Records
---
Amino acid sequence: MAKSIVLFHEDLRCGDHQPLTEANAIGEVIPVYILDSKDPNQLGGASKIWLHHALTDLNQQLQKKICFLEGDPKKLLPELMAKHQINNLFCHERFDPYGIALQEALKQSIGFEKFHSFNGTLLWHPEEIHKSDGTPYRVFTPFYRKGCLQFGPLPRQPLPHIIPDKLTLIEEGCHLDELSLKSKLPWGKEIIQYWDISEQGAHNRLNTFIEHKLEGYKIQRDFPSQGHTSKLSPFLKWGMISVPTVWAQLNTLTNIPSKDLDHFKSELGWREFSYYLLHHFPKIIKENLNPNFDHFPWHEDDALLKAWQQGQTGYPIVDAAMRQLYATGYMHNRLRMVVGSFLVKNLTLHWHHGQDWFWDCLFDADIANNSAGWQWIAGCGADAAPYFRIFNPILQSQKFDKDGAFIHQWVPELAELPAPHCFQPWLTPKDVLDQANVKLGENYPNPIIDLTSSRDRALNAYSHLKSKKS
Ligand SMILES: Cc1cc2nc3c(=O)[nH]c(=O)nc-3n(C[C@H](O)[C@H](O)[C@H](O)COP(=O)(O)OP(=O)(O)OC[C@H]3O[C@@H](n4cnc5c(N)ncnc54)[C@H](O)[C@@H]3O)c2cc1C
């Protein structure tokens, strides 16, 4: 009977888990989770909290047999395998540069024949998709429509949920509570109240979304207060439900208009695209994909950055979104674009600042999606928003938060100020402000920047960049 480690990472589930299934088929299973102290992308605050709860659920499912360790997997795993005469290491393939290097090193140290990895993260492996000339795609639509959807073999069918027959706990590990994951701040308790952080919770969320919100998704997905998106992102990020599981379930639906179904699938396609870009252009984590942006005249201003982070910019839709992020670990996609554009184009602060804050606050903080998202918004990424596309927070509120419901929910100081006044309180007559108990500069800030002049400044800088390029 073989003895195998199943190494968990961002695949915290028992359903559609090929390493668990394969290891179980040949014998005894030793589940291991290592909090990696060497990973250059150390977890942000929100991620640690989510991870703690996700591991609690997984450990419960695996009869409390997970061996928890903290340190360098390159050192810990070969030692464990030698000490306990373990024959195999099963895991999912990683797509981040550090993870790829780590898995290569493990193959070398434990032996290629003992290392077994599977793609459990993506529908289409990035190596399989390329243009007819063999080079990688850089534009989403042909990548998805031609590269992925017309790729011969369909995404694989998900595997059944399993609990291995023989699970073994090895003693080296610590208690889950001893990993450096728990937040000492009250924030750690408050932020989880919006979520059921469990594998079952992931499936419930998918089912509820399909039942109530998928129909109408294509149009309604843009309206933050309507909750018409799936909020599956943290579950997908942490692998608590696999993307083949979601895809297969979508393919069984016969009563959803194809425009909604196809649009939702294409959003999963954007996730594939981010991972594809990360795989082919690993520098996107830190460097502009388009090097013309290397000379962009970014500003440094701690006070502006802090106002943005804390939702105190004086632009209510920006502030509402930033406060939603901090309170719930989530931000709606349209608002990620609005606050991102405000940071990089109106405040001209480097996209790294936005990337870092999102990394720290998002439950779905994901090395591929976050990096690609920020490059997209800054205009320096693949198939990015053009530099002249600067989201106007007031027009965005008028269009996507017409009655001000989202602002009222997250900026309580403005709860009594009706739309459209709550979109731009600084232009609101004093008697209306008084009636709504809004005292600008006292209980709600004046705008930290002028939209028109900051927009002109950005356009100027960007057009200078453009002329340098040509
Ligand atoms: C600046 C910026 C940073 C971002 N950072 C992240 C991040 O760290 N993690 C993350 O998962 N997403 C990120 N996104 C993408 C997107 O905003 C979220 O995936 C989406 O808002 C999650 O909400 P949902 O699950 O309700 O989405 P739905 O609309 O229900 O979409 C379903 C799934 O498709 C995927 N998806 C949707 N939109 C995108 C997109 N634009 N790019 C990639 N995948 C997408 C997600 O996995 C999502 O769960 C970022 C976008 C921007 C503009």
---
Amino acid sequence: MNQIASVPAIADQIVIRAESALDFLAREALLDRAFGLDRWRKTCERLREGRLPAPGLAFSAIRGGVLVGTLRFWSIKAGDAHDALLLGPIAVSASLRSQGLGGAMIRLGLEHARALGHKAVILVGDAPYYERFGFSRVGAEHLDLPGPVELARFLALELAPGALAGAQGMVRATGAFSESEGDRRLAA
Ligand SMILES: CC(C)(COP(=O)(O)OP(=O)(O)OC[C@H]1O[C@@H](n2cnc3c(N)ncnc32)[C@H](O)[C@@H]1OP(=O)(O)O)[C@@H](O)C(=O)NCCC(=O)NCCS
């Protein structure tokens, strides 16, 4: 798949491109290292399992042919009436953290999401990190997730002003189901 961005701030140039099925093993290994095997028990996993990422919104960061970053978004419904995306997981190889790659991937992902017509994004993560991209509790206050969540970590971002106004109730997965082995490599 074609390069869609580069990260010039990092000395050894990194390319961000659309995820490919061939990234499966490296992506899963990076996620295991970043989050541990407990990652499968996260509440957000209930919104990803058995589904494909939102079309055009799964990204891999590559340096010298090696996958060093992953970011994926998922289609959800925030309550009954509001279509949105779930951001995550995102992970960057430990040796490359704090050099701007995570931020570059998120900004790129949000830009693509907006260009594809998505109007809002939710996530569960550390507010001190995600606030810099505009995420806050606004829009998520009246939403529930299908499992335990620390409310301070349940955040939202409106890509279109007011997109989550009135959003209330359960968040549920709406993405396409993964069916084939090839699909599974693209799925969670
Ligand atoms: C979170 C993660 C993707 C950020 O990637 P990155 O390439 O290091 O991000 P950036 O370089 O754009 O930003 C780094 C800055 O964010 C800060 N930061 C990183 N994770 C943070 C967190 N959880 N809470 C608060 N700040 C955080 C760093 O301290 C650094 O601050 P500085 O710029 O003042 O030095 C990366 O640290 C990672 O893979 N972590 C393990 C997996 C994970 O926790 N994913 C997020 C789940 S919520």
